[in-house]
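User: Need the bound-state model for adenosine-5'-triphosphate:
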Amino acid sequence: MMLEVDKINVFYGAIHALTDISFNVEEGEIVALIGANGAGKSTSLKTLSGLLHPTTGSIRFLEEDISTKAAEEIVRKGIIHVPEGRKIFAPLTVMENLEMGAFLQNDKDQIACDIRSAFERFPRLKERQNQLGGTLSGGEQQMLAIARGLMSHPKLMLLDEPSMGLAPVLVEQIFEIIQEINKQGTSILLVEQNAKMALSIANRAYVLETGSVVLEGAAKDVMENSSVIQAYLGG
Ligand code: ATP
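Assistant: Bound-state model below.
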């Protein structure tokens, strides 16, 4: 197992945000976490990436307990957190954003090579390489967030709401890119309010409600579950 989250509890002060949550990701998988606003999806990702720490429970990544590790160390181990697209560095150029994504890499040639790969994957970003991040469209910012994440050569990518605020045609494009990244060997944990899209590309899914996992299974089974259809797939 690549990632094993076992009964973690996470608090914001007195607020109990995650209660005994367990889930896992196998190498090569796309796993979706779906659920309504406030269900605990973003908190789960922040805990995996070391921005928050569980009070109890464990997080194992490639057989090692990472639940108390610092965020930078977790990136070093191969987990990257791609926040929703608006959280790129707005006052920096596209190029500078990508360079920031390579903060663990000292080899300048390798960085240049990775930037070339990013531009091959996202020609749109190449055209806008000297433009400030904050002036990009929503879809371009999301692409930049993903491209920046790839600069660290992650084994596991945590994607927070990649479809947020995007027109349907761009959502399709972003989801195709996610599938492509996965096919090239990066495992993906995908948090989405757009349950339909997430389930359509995921191998497995977990449904979160008020900080707990209430349902888990193969994405196609979750998609056919009547309470999921009722609550998240528009009846
Ligand atoms: P959303 O899509 O709205 O971000 P979510 O499923 O990602 O929803 P979380 O953001 O993880 O949910 O929130 C889980 C719970 O933790 C909610 O009750 C939320 O109000 C609370 N919470 C989130 N961030 C904080 C914070 N910084 N301080 C206090 N409580 C928080």
